[in-house]
Amino acid sequence: MKNARRFLPESLLALFGIVILAIVISPIASDGSRIFLQAGNLTDILRQISLIGIISLAMTFVILTAGIDLSVGSILALSTTLVAMALARQGHGIPASILIAVAASAAVGAVNGLVIATLRMQPFVVTLATMIGVRGLAKWLSNNENIDIGFGHDVAAQFAAAFRQKGVVIGSYVATAAAFWVLLTRTVFGRHVRAVGDNEKAAEYAGLPIRATKVWVYGLSGLLSGFAGVLYAAENHQGNPNAGVAYELDAIAAVVIGGTRLSGGKGSISGTIIGTLFMGILTNMLRLNNVDSNVEMMIKAVIIVLAVAAQRERKSR
Amino acid sequence: MKRIAVAVACMLAWSCGGGGKKQFFVAFSQANNAEPYRAAQNALMTKLWAEHPDVRLVISDAQQDNSKQIAQVETFIRQKPDLLIVAPNERAALTAVMGQAMEAKIPVICLERDILQPNYTSYVHSDNVAIGRKAGQFIADYLAKKNGTPKGNVVAMRGLLGVEGEMNRDRGAKEVFDRYPGIKIVADPVADWIQAKAKDRMTEVLRAQPHIDVVYGHNDPMAVGAYLAAKELGREKEMIFVGVDGLGGEAGGIKKVMDGVLAATFVYPLCVEKAVEIGDRILRDPAFHPEKDYVIESTMVTPENAAAVYAK
């Protein structure tokens, strides 16, 4: 926790900086208010970051164990497909459909963890394979088609109407973030996660349950990706086997900007939340000012490097 | 942090620029700049709006991501544009957010792809079934001329499965083929719209099929990919290649017809001219009530008219 405290102010500073910049350069609405500060816009930002935000919480755990999970986008796609199929084609109820999608996603994640822990394979390779295979599975299950949830009055449409609401999406993110913060900072499991990433050999000699910890961590990553997939399906009114491409990179970026080291052991959930907010506000700020989308990518690239560099600079002194 | 702020401010100042007197603000949410068809839409959109100096056009690129496009349209809604044009990435995903734009009293033009509910002021689009029928009839006529009666072996090179364009271009052509029992589809590989994939799939088909009369690519790049595969095996003279899209420019299908690679292509209209025309009237004439639905006809491009169409 000492390390976490030391870099937190740095990333918080970056967040304040971007907020102030966004306020200063915000376009002005016809009623004289700053568009950036409108309640509608601020909640737009929160809703827009929620899916990546949820995925990046578990990604933080994975990276803390010195691992990586490239399969989150594909698992999200699988989950959107499963929940939509269960609702719209098989006529399951809403709780059962969500359970099917989330449980399958968690199972995929747990398999990742099992293979990584028992075969001692590199997480990058294992989750890369899962990323490819699960994408194929989602496309195969759906026969390459999007599964429409529609706008009618059936159960599927009710599901979408309920779970696409801003309050529900943002609330889901806040609740998950709180749960994962507690899990990391207040539980034995959280300490194990850090210990495994900090020094796996030492953790092993100390008799910590390394294998179980890894299975749990990747299982949680699958679970949260699946949960994000459920929200995605509602937001987009469809199951989509092509959804979530490159989401793993957005999630990793949020974690890294939040100060978590890719080498494991050091990092925090609060940092990741800050990183997620930072990227969301940056994106919103650039769009409100109608920055060309290609320029947007270039600016983001520079800022990711600067944000991480600023944290390293101070720490090395 | 100061350094970061300065750097961002500089880049913003550089990228935004302009400003000044009161203008119309037209926002265009594009599904994916990376597709040539959509890049052509953007280029024509920019050119046509540039003829109106009091209109400021902003194009956002959703990079083929539904969630990204929803977010971009939401941000546009906050900016209250005078006109919002949306080329939806997928129909179900964009339906609700376009409804929000309508609720915010922003005129909305839905471009090319439809959505599940009529959450737009006008919908400007083409008809892929009609295009498929035209292509099918062209192929049937060609076979009748070549073989005496409309009979022969056709390879259908399919785009991304489950996409409206792929389904309807396929359906329209098959409606025609079904009337002629002599026309056989001997293979219908899936190449996801991509030229390189089409070349690989066609190579496999060529190994398996000793005689092919026509390749019908659901877009031009796939028809060209099939041509390249046939050429590699020295069989390109045995068959003709027909495509759809008919984009202009050096890399487009019309040029490929002029070069003798494609026997014909069927223009899939950009729909932009009509959108700008009615969009401009919406901006300037409060009494103007546009139609709900505008269908743009496809043009057949063959060696006879290719040069003329290309010049346009």
Give me the secondary-structure topology.
The complex is a heterodimer of chains A (317) and B (312).
Chain A: H1 2-24, H2 39-64, H3 72-89, H4 94-118, H5 123-141, E1 147-148, H6 155-163, H7 166-186, H8 188-198, H9 200-205, H10 210-236, E2 238-239, H11 247-257, H12 269-288, H13 293-316
Antiparallel strand pairs in A: 1-2
Chain B: H1 2-16, E1 24-30, H2 36-50, E2 55-61, H3 66-79, E3 83-86, H4 91-103, E4 108-111, E5 122-125, H5 128-147, E6 152-157, H6 164-177, E7 183-187, H7 195-208, E8 214-217, H8 220-232, E9 240-245, H9 253-258, E10 264-267, H10 272-284, E11 293-295, E12 300-301, H11 306-311
Helix pairs in contact in B: 3-4, 5-6, 7-8
Fold and architecture overview:
With 317 residues, chain A is mainly alpha-helical. Chain A contains 13 helices and 2 strands. Chain A is globular. The two termini of chain A are 19 Å apart. With 312 residues, chain B is α/β, with parallel strands linked by helices. Chain B has 2 domains: 24-126 and 270-296, Rossmann fold (3-Layer(aba) Sandwich); 128-268, Rossmann fold (3-Layer(aba) Sandwich), CATH 3.40.50.2300. The longest helix of chain B is centred in the middle third of the chain and has 20 residues, at 128-147. Chain B is elongated and about 65 Å long. Chain B starts with a helix and ends with a helix. Classes of the chains: A mainly alpha (317), B alpha/beta (312). The interface between A and B is large, with 53 and 39 residues.
